[in-house]
Inverse folding.
C-alpha cells in the first residue's frame, strides 16, 4: 500500500515537471470533451424541437381518427360523435389527465378558395379555437390580424401568407370557399345526393406564417361549427381528435390506454411516429449519423490521448532506465505511467466540463441562431425553429465523461507497456 501511494505521488510530480506542456495537453484533450458535450446538447435539442414543431404543426403526439384514414386520407371517414365524447371523458379522468396538455377535435376536408384575383386548392381545417390554441403552433405564428376565437362570426377564416399572397388577400378581404358536402362512408342523404357542392363567403381575420410551404400555401382554418355547416356534417362528428402531451415519451402509454378504452370501435389510435412516419425516419437517420459523428470525435480524443502519453514515455527512456537500475520493477513503471495518464485525463475532464457546460448553458438560454446560414431566407422545407436551443441531460453528461475516462484508461495501457519493456542497457546509452 505504501509503495502504491509512493507511485501515485511520483506520477503527480512527474506530471508537473513541465506545467505548461501539461496544461496545454489537458486543454487540448478537454476541448474534445467540450465539443462532444456541445454537439450532444445541440443535437438532442434539435431533435426535441423538431418533434415538438412537427407534432404541433401536424396531428399531435397521439391522434384518434376513423379506421383507415391514415392510409386512405378519405374526407368521408369521420369519427362518430359518441366516440369523440368517450375520448374526451376518458382523458379528463384518472392518471391520463396529468400527462395531457391539450385536446383538439378537427374536421378536415379539401376545397377551392377563390377571389377576383385567382383561385387555389386548399386544405380545410375546422377547429374549436380555444382547444386548438393548446395543441397547435398556428395561433402563435400570426403575422397579421388575429387567430380565431369563439366570439368570431362563422364567416371568419385564417390563411397562410403564401396563400394570401397568391389570392391577394388582406385582413378583412372576402373569399368564396367551395367544397363537396361530406357523408360517412356508405351513408346517403335523404334526397340521395350526397355529392352536392357547397359554397360560402368567408372574411379573412388573420394571416399566419410557419415557414413550411405545405402549410402556408394550402391550409385554412375555420371555426368547427362553420366547417360542419359547410360540409353538411351532422352532430359533433369530426375527422380526428388530436392530443398534445406534457412529455413525448408518454405517447405509447397514452395510445395503449386509448386503444383499450375504444376496443371494438371503428377507430385507429396512432402515436406521432405512426402518423408522421417520414419525420420518424428522418430522425432515425439523423440519430445514426450523430452516432457516427460522436464516434469520430471520440476517436480524435483517443488519438490525442495516445499520442500525448506515448510521446511523454518515449522522451523519458533514460529516466525509466535509471528507475529500473535503482530497482523499480516493470509492473511499477507501468502503474506509474497509467497513474500519470489518469491524472492528466482527470484534469482534462475538469477543463472540458467547465468549457463544454458553459457553452451549452449559453446555447440553452440564448440559442444558436441559424438564420445567418440562410441569409436569402429560410428554406421552405425547414421543419424547426431557426433558433436552436441546446438540451443536455445529466445522463448524457455522465455518459460522455464515463466514455472518455474509460477510453483514456484503456489507451494508457499501451504506453505503460512500452515503459515496462524499457531495455536497461539501451536506455542508459541515451547520454
Amino acid at each position: 500500500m505504501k509503495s502504491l501511494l509512493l507511485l501515485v505521488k511520483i506520477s503527480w510530480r512527474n506530471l508537473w515537471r513541465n506545467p505548461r506542456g501539461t496544461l496545454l495537453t489537458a486543454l487540448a484533450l478537454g476541448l474534445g470533451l467540450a465539443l462532444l458535450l456541445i454537439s450532444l446538447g445541440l443535437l438532442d435539442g434539435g431533435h426535441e424541437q423538431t418533434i415538438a414543431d412537427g407534432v404541433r404543426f401536424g396531428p399531435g403526439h397521439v391522434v384518434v381518427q376513423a379506421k383507415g384514414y391514415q392510409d386512405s386520407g378519405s374526407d368521408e371517414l369521420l369519427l362518430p360523435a359518441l366516440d369523440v365524447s368517450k375520448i374526451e371523458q376518458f382523458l379528463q379522468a384518472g392518471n391520463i389527465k396529468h400527462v395531457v396538455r391539450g385536446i383538439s377535435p378537427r374536421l378536415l376536408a379539401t376545397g377551392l378558395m377563390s377571389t377576383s384575383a385567382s383561385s387555389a386548392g386548399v386544405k380545410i381545417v375546422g377547429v374549436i379555437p380555444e382547444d386548438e390554441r393548446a395543441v397547435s403552433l398556428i395561433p402563435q405564428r400570426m403575422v397579421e390580424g388575429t387567430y380565431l376565437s369563439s366570439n368570431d362570426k362563422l364567416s371568419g377564416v385564417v390563411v397562410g401568407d403564401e396563400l394570401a399572397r397568391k389570392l391577394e388577400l388582406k385582413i378583412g378581404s372576402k373569399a368564396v370557399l367551395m367544397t363537396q358536402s361530406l357523408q360517412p362512408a356508405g351513408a346517403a342523404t335523404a334526397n340521395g345526393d350526397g355529392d352536392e357542392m357547397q359554397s360560402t363567403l368567408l372574411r379573412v381575420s388573420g394571416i399566419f406564417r410557419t415557414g413550411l410551404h405545405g402549410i402556408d400555401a394550402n391550409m385554412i382554418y375555420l371555426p368547427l361549427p362553420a366547417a360542419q355547416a359547410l360540409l353538411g356534417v351532422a352532430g359533433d362528428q369530426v375527422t380526428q381528435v388530436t392530443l398534445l402531451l406534457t412529455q413525448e415519451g408518454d405517447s405509447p402509454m397514452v395510445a395503449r390506454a386509448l386503444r383499450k378504452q375504444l376496443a371494438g370501435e371503428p377507430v385507429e389510435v396512432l402515436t406521432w411516429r405512426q402518423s408522421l412516419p417520414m419525420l420518424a425516419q428522418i430522425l432515425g437517420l439523423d440519430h445514426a449519423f450523430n452516432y457516427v459523428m460522436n464516434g469520430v470525435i471520440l476517436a480524435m480524443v483517443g488519438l490525442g490521448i495516445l499520442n500525448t502519453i506515448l510521446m511523454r514515455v518515449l522522451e523519458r527512456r533514460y529516466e525509466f532506465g535509471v528507475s529500473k537500475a535503482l530497482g523499480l520493477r516493470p509492473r511499477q513503471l507501468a502503474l506509474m505511467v497509467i497513474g500519470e495518464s489518469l491524472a492528466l485525463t482527470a484534469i482534462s475532464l475538469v477543463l472540458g466540463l467547465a468549457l463544454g457546460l458553459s457553452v451549452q448553458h449559453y446555447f440553452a438560454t440564448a440559442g444558436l441562431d441559424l438564420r445567418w446560414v440562410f441569409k436569402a431566407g429560410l428554406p421552405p422545407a425547414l421543419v424547426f425553429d431557426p433558433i436552436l436551443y441546446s438540451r443536455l441531460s445529466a445522463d448524457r453528461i455522465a455518459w460522455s465523461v464515463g466514455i472518455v475516462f474509460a477510453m483514456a484508461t484503456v489507451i494508457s495501457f499501451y504506453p505503460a507497456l512500452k515503459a515496462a519493456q524499457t531495455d536497461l542497457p539501451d536506455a542508459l546509452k541515451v547520454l
Q: What stands out?
A: Residues 59-275 form one domain. The longest strand covers residues 100-114.
